[in-house]
Design goal:
The complex is a heterodimer of chains A (473) and B (497). With 473 residues, chain A is α/β, with parallel strands linked by helices. Chain A has helices at 16-20, 32-51, 53-82, 93-99, 120-128, 148-156, 176-185, 205-214, 236-258, 274-279, 290-300, 320-341, 345-352, 354-387, 390-395, 398-425, 438-458, and strands at residues 107-113, 137-144, 163-168, 191-194, 200-201, 220-229, 270-273, 304-314. Chain B folds into two domains: 2-358, no CATH class; 372-496. The longest helix of chain B is centred in the middle third of the chain and has 27 residues, at 207-233.
């Protein structure tokens, strides 16, 4: 195995992906072909609306309705697949004990931090509590060189020998993936994982990840753990957020894993084979959801991602203002990822195969598209219920109306119910009532979606940092 | 591939069973229950996008939304005006396929391959004896959904798998949308869920989550029904109005009306359920309890004089007995050495009781009014002839869901189906026309219609401004009398001169 030298501090290029494979990077937001396609589509729709408004309106409604129907059925399929035994690795305490004694491989842990000195003691304590041989751990705190407060706090803390500080020289873009790329170049472990500063991984998570890798075929290069929140009951927002995460990480991603398809990786707690990650040139420093992008790149390169049932506990954003900023970044990253990978759609189709291509379109493209069009359809539904104007009815002829009604009454309920299922599996029974108000949460998501869409054009690489520690203040 | 092969071994026999039911057991003639023609009419009207169709979808407990929705694809694809109700046939076929599939899956879970097929065939033979199963789509759909509901409930109760609970909760919601025929039983099943959770120490801490997960779909389905009623009929509780304004009277416990095969079936359920409860065989116990609950509901329907509506309950009751027996035998087959001899003898005894008592004689269900296309045409011809003899401007409102069945495939503009009758509104809207109301005898489902609860005894005595005009079998015609306007009076006087 090709492993970097232990004290390799040679300069590395954190932007290697953008420099050597720009077609894989979000450094270029929209390609020329995409611009042409977007202008052509806008002209087509505009012309249609001007010349034959009713027919064009009906076509648009039909398209959106078919999309909603597909999204609903797709979600149901994912949930059904999540019940399959191969959806996620599961190790009992007895299974872990049976694996001992053994020589555990070196595991690298990257902890990117920026302006969060207060989290260092808790983070160090969490890492020390990991149930993994200390001499097999290689932890790097990735700290920006100009973030003196965090640097000083880290130096003041008596760090155990397996934790070292890696300074990130200030340069553009100031993103987490850029820091992680530097950490990746200096990683010593056979496996590598990223944790955020406020993360609290379950102590045996690294061992479970190693066992999962060992029980997987060679092309499985990433094991994603479940993420959830340690402050779900703080307020209504954290309740919704926890329900969403429970559904996403406990049901949807295992469903995707069961189908052996593209998995948009979660922000942290994804365990990689270091060498493969280095060969893939690490993360895209220009993509603000570098994890999601990496998940797609892994699938395009023929690799697979699996899930393991172990949880990393994070802090749910409890302030609507910061929540919207965080969600805006995520959705902007999804747009970036979608645009990067659809620059050459036929190549994407060839590399992923038709089934995974559809998964990609529905997962990445679908989530952006739905958050953008939802407000229009909610408004249409509200206007129809209250004022019953005949114009709206004429947009929904016959079967389109039937499908739309199905999506409105059944589809929306299914999405709420999936969150309930996630809560139930997590034993968050007392959070379940909050999910009855989930449509408000969806409205916030749509607001963030539109904000992300506009920001994608105005400020694509801007990283809206999430403020942590609000719920403990 | 193995998954597909496994599915095919369930789909193909179920499909063959549905075909056999449709081909062999469906009566050749077109004399069918009135409700079947009504079903055909509702689906056709709904696909045509008429107001009456939309009102009919949500406006009645006896023509409930789910069977109609199942019939919609057929109504869109199959041609109109055939001598047989094609939509009803198609819907029945789909429902029977699903029912056969559900039962086959249950049997395969209980037994190994060949015993499972044998038991499944026994279920089908039992179903074949149920009158109306192949001719009434509402009954077929209700039975299929009810069987899926109770079997999924039993699966969850036995294995506590989350997937089974989800399937049960959605099936329960669908069952609630099947209307009044099994409404009380649906409610009892819904109440069983919290009861089960409370009685089990392992489930008790999770009562809140179980209630939300298990009962939210049914509550949501009912609230959508209310909302749709509000939107289509300007009255959220329109389908329940009949029960409020003209509630059926209690006629006493129907001891005489209890058929021996019903008593035999409930005895099977009670005995096997009790034995299973003693041995902690939860699946059989729950099926047994559900069977007994079904008898309670069946009795309530009969006690309220709704014997005509007991078809699904009666059919399901016998099926429940057989399923309970299958579950008990399945446990015996799986753990033959751990079950004491007396228990095995008891199950065998109940099996014999089942064979001796529970099989219903063919055609034992309450008979429903039958109708064929010719009879419908004759009625419409006679009424039209009468109206034309009175006035060239006559318009006849058929004040019943049955009107949709009568008018299905009939293009006469003189007749209009009217589900939400407001005589004054009709007079205003059809000013200067001679209006007639065609009212069916208020029996069976027709006794719960708007014309009855809004205009009491309209069939017997008419209503204000509605005078008796004629009588054709179960139908009566009333003419709406309107005072002439000043212009009409002048015109009449001039003509008189």
């Amino acid at each position: 195995m090709k492993t970097p030298e232990p004290d390799n501090l040679a300069p590395c290029d954190p932007l290697a992906l953008a420099h050597t494979r720009p077609e894989w990077s979000a450094i270029l937001s929209v390609s020329r072909g995409q611009k042409r396609a977007a202008i052509g589509l806008a002209l087509l729709i505009g012309g249609g609306l001007a010349l034959a408004p009713l027919a064009t309106g009906r076509l648009l409604v039909l398209g959106c309705t078919l999309f909603y129907l597909a999204a609903t059925l797709y979600k149901l399929m994912l949930i059904r697949a999540a019940a399959h035994p191969r959806a996620a690795f599961q190790f009992s305490a007895a299974a872990l004990a049976a694996a001992e004694p053994r020589d555990w491989p070196v595991f690298s842990i990257l902890v990117p931090m920026y302006k969060e000195p207060e989290t260092i003691p808790q983070m160090v304590a969490g890492l020390q509590a990991m149930d993994y041989p200390a001499d097999r751990l290689d932890v790097q705190l990735l700290l920006e060189a100009d973030d003196t407060a965090t640097l000083e706090a880290a130096r003041a803390e008596s760090l155990p020998p397996f934790i070292r500080i890696t300074e990130i020289p200030p340069s553009f873009p100031r993103t987490k993936p850029k820091a992680c790329n530097i950490g990746l170049a200096r990683a010593r472990g056979r496996y590598l994982v990223i944790y955020d500063a406020e993360d609290r991984p379950e102590p045996d998570q690294l061992k479970k990840a190693v066992l999962s890798f060992e029980q997987s075929p060679a092309n499985v290069v990433c094991i994603q753990s479940c993420l959830n929140y340690y402050n779900p009951r703080f307020n209504l927002l954290t309740r919704w957020f926890a329900a969403e995460y429970s559904a996403w990480f406990d049901l949807c991603l295992p469903g995707l894993a069961a189908m052996r398809t593209v998995i948009p990786l979660g922000g942290t707690s994804n365990h990689f084979k270091t060498q493969v990650l280095q060969e893939l040139l690490g993360w895209d420093a220009y993509n603000v959801t570098e994890d999601c992008d990496l998940g797609v790149r892994l699938a395009r390169a023929g690799y697979e991602t699996r899930m393991v049932r172990t949880t990393t506990w994070e802090e749910a954003c409890c302030d609507p203002h910061f929540w919207i900023r965080q969600r805006t970044r995520w959705q902007k990253g999804y747009i970036q990822t979608f645009m990067v990978h659809t620059r050459e759609p036929l190549k994407l189709l060839r590399e992923l195969g038709p089934v995974n291509f559809l998964h990609f379109m529905l997962l990445i493209g679908g989530s952006i598209f739905s958050s953008l069009i939802n407000p229009f359809f909610w408004a249409l539904a509200l206007i129809w219920f209250i004022f019953r104007p005949s114009g709206i009815e004429s947009l929904f002829p016959g079967w389109v109306f039937a499908m739309s009604a199905f999506c409105l009454f059944v589809g929306n309920f299914v999405f709420v119910y999936i969150n309930l299922l996630g809560c139930f599996r997590r034993r968050y029974d007392t959070l379940m009532w909050a999910n009855l108000l989930t449509p408000v949460y969806w409205a916030m998501m749509s607001f963030s979606g539109w904000r992300a869409f506009l920001q994608f054009f105005s400020n694509p690489f801007h990283w809206e940092k999430t403020q942590h520690g609000l719920s403990t203040q | 591939m193995a998954y597909l092969r496994n599915k095919l071994t369930e789909w193909i026999p179920a499909l063959l069973a549905a075909v056999a039911f449709s081909v062999v057991l469906t009566p050749a003639g077109d004399a069918l229950p009135v409700q079947t023609w009504t079903f055909e009419g509702i689906c056709r009207e709904l696909v045509a996008g008429t107001t009456e169709g939309r009102q009919a979808l949500v406006g009645s407990l006896w023509h409930a939304p789910l069977p109609t929705l199942v019939g919609l694809p057929g109504a869109a694809l199959l041609p109109r005006g055939a001598s047989i109700p094609l939509v009803a046939r198609g819907t029945t076929f789909l429902a029977l396929f699903f029912l056969a599939y559900t039962l086959l899956r249950f049997c395969r879970r209980q037994f190994s391959m060949w015993p499972a097929m044998l038991f499944w065939l026994a279920c089908l033979l039992l179903l074949a004896r149920l009158p109306g199963l192949t001719t009434q789509p509402q009954m077929a759909v209700t039975l299929a959904v009810a069987a899926a509901t109770v079997l999924k409930f039993a699966d969850w109760f036995d294995g506590r798998r989350l997937g089974d609970l989800v399937k049960f909760s959605f099936a329960l919601a669908l069952l609630a949308l099947c209307g009044a025929h099994l409404a009380g039983w649906t409610l009892l099943l819904a109440l069983l869920l919290p009861l089960v959770a409370l009685l089990d120490p392992a489930l008790r801490p999770r009562l809140q989550g179980l209630l939300i997960l298990g009962l939210l779909p049914v509550l949501y389905a009912m609230s959508i029904w209310l909302l749709m009623s509000r939107l289509m009929l300007a009255d959220a509780i329109y389908p329940w109005r009949a029960l409020i304004h003209t509630p059926p009277a209690w006629t006493g416990w129907p001891a005489a009306g209890m058929a021996p095969h019903h008593l035999g079936a409930v005895a099977c359920c009670a005995l096997l359920g009790g034995l299973a409860a003693c041995r902690r065989d939860r699946r059989t116990a729950l099926l047994g309890v559900s069977g007994v609950a079904l008898l309670v509901w069946h009795t309530v329907l009969q006690g309220y004089g709704l014997a005509w509506a007991t078809g699904p309950a009666a059919g399901l009751l016998t099926l429940m007995a057989l399923l309970t027996l299958a579950s008990a035998l399945g446990v015996l087959a799986a753990r033959p050495h751990t079950v004491p001899l007396r228990h095995r003898l008891a199950v065998a005894g109940v099996g014999l009781v089942f064979l001796a008592l529970c099989i219903p004689p063919r055609g034992s269900s309450p008979t429903l009014a039958m109708q064929d296309r010719q009879t419908q045409r004759r009625l419409l011809d006679a009424v039209e002839h009468y109206v034309e003899s009175r006035t060239p401007y006559g318009r006849v409102f058929i004040c019943s869901y049955r009107g949709l069945g009568l008018l299905e495939g009939d293009a006469r503009e003189r007749f209009v189906a009217c589900l939400d009758l407001h005589v004054d509104a009709l007079r205003e809207r059809y000013h200067r026309q001679n209006l007639f109301l065609l009212v069916p005898r208020p029996e069976a489902d027709a006794a719960f219609e708007c014309a009855v609860w809004r205009y009491h005894d309209i069939y017997g005595h008419g209503a204000a401004r509605a005078l008796f005009a004629g009588d054709w079998g179960d139908w009566r015609l009333y003419e709406i009398i309107t005072a002439p306007t000043a212009d009409e009076l002048l015109e009449w006087r001039q003509r008189e001169r």
